[in-house]
Amino acid sequence: SQKIEQNSEALNIQEGKTATLTCNYTNYSPAYLQWYRQDPGRGPVFLLLIRENEKEKRKERLKVTFDTTLKQSLFHITASQPADSATYLCALVRGSGNTGKLIFGQGTTLQVKP
Amino acid sequence: KAGVTQTPRYLIKTRGQQVTLSCSPISGHRSVSWYQQTPGQGLQFLFEYFSETQRNKGNFPGRFSGRQFSNSRSEMNVSTLELGDSALYLCASSLASGTGGFKNIQYFGAGTRLSVL
Q1: Considering only alpha carbons, which residue of chain A is nearest residue B48?
Q2: What is the pLDDT of residues A29-75, one digit of tens each?
Q3: Interior angle at CA B33, CA B86 and CA B59, nearest 5
Q4: How far is A91 from chain B (nearest CA, A)?
Q5: Rounded Cα–Cα distance for residues A65 and A18 (Å)
Q6: Using CA atoms, how far apart are residues A110 and B65, in angstroms rounded to an integer?
Q7: How far is B116 from chain A (nearest CA, A)?
């Protein structure tokens, strides 16, 4: 069955550097991937969606790539700030049509130090 | 437009009791999904309702059930609570279900923190 793997270890970086988070999946390539941000005690918030035919998507300081050959998506935050500290989750749809359901990775916690 | 509202925010129950959680989706959203989040298992899909019908179900025991009303509001029920049911329960609404692309973007509520003693 389709599985998603994100680095469970926290990522610690210095303010101003670029943070890169990885999302790997098994089996078939999904039609699209979603990335969410979650702060402690709150629900996840949608950030970006990338389709399988899009190699790269950008939104302000955020950039997502999608490599269907490697079965991997990378999430980059450039010029990182302490306010970017949070857990980042990737998600994809398992199944097809109206019975498809969104499954999430475990998330990677990012700590940006000033 | 108001976001997804979950009530209550916090709940303390004892083993064997049952609990009902409530979720009001964003106006116009017909799909409501429920997730359980724990430190060890992450975000686990429970079930999804679309237009009052259960469209999808995750791998949880029958003690977990839900329903959706005609106004898209949804409730989740857990019977015979166990210690392992302690978790953050998140509700999310979206325009559509399944592989709808942008229509399947999940808008989450703040969650209900359930503690089972």
Answers
A1: A101
A2: 777 889 999 999 899 999 999 988 888 999 999 999 999 889 999 99
A3: 60
A4: 10
A5: 14
A6: 34
A7: 18
